[in-house]
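So, can you check this one?
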Amino acid sequence: MKRKNLKNPEPTVTDFSSVEQASRLLFSRQAGSRDGRPTPQIGRPVRFHPAPSRRRGWLRNPHPWLAIAAAALAAFVPSTASAMGVASSKSLLDLYRDGGPIMHLIAFCSVAVVALGAYCAVMFRKGKLMPPNVVAHLNNLMSQRDLQGAYDFCSANPCLLTHVLAGALTKANFERDMFNKTAMENAIADDCFRGETKMMVIVNYLNTFAVLAPMIGLLGTVAGMITSFSALTAGKAEATDLAKGIGEALIATGGGLLLAIPSMFLYFFFRGMLTTNMADVHKALSHILDLFTGEAHGSPPSTRQTYADTTAPAAAE
């Protein structure tokens, strides 16, 4: 029998995979070796024997899981970096050109949505519909029952509130009960409804663009797929020949969604703002009518003379 060389043994070391190599690096400090390799034994493969722990399951030895995560991250980072490098090489103008002719229609609709949003933000705000100084001056005139002065002031300061109030003032009649307040209230309700309807027509255009934008993007998707299948019909089966049509389809779809989402948000935002402001306008007009008929006072209750104050001198006499 051939004797074994005990002085210079040749240990049998198994080949490590990438995960085991990462695990060996993590165990380097625990193993106490300089190069991160545990001390091999004669005739046996190198295996890891972590210290026993009372924890159960995968928490008993979390280091292999960390090694797997490190290996996965090392494989993911290069591919992500290369993809980002390809994506960053294209500007927004390049993407716009790759989207095909449908992108011109999407760009036109985007400009229209921005213009509508700016118009609604300026014209439908509360300060534009009912300026505070106009409301204060009308309260003063109507509490004095100066109908001619109030009507002239409404004509000189056009806004939604003065337009509605001017129509209601034409219904006033000092010979009727409560100065014909019922007819004035009906005129205010009709004019407010008419004014809100006209303004909602402009707000509804935002909803129109929000509905049409995905359809325009879908039209670009169909055009891109037609381009791809036309390349296949012509016998061009290369990936670069098909990528142009597929890229055009995806870019057009994304452009349509990028237009639809802000349009839908602006529609709901301005619709809610208009409804709230119209409720405030109607409340201000009702208060002006109450001042005219004497059902309301321009001063708070603390500054007015109460009923007890007026009856006290009479009772003393």
Observations:
- The two ends are 144 Å apart (CA to CA).
- The CA atoms of residues 80 and 86 lie 10 Å apart.
- The chain has two domains: 10-32+61-80, 98-297.
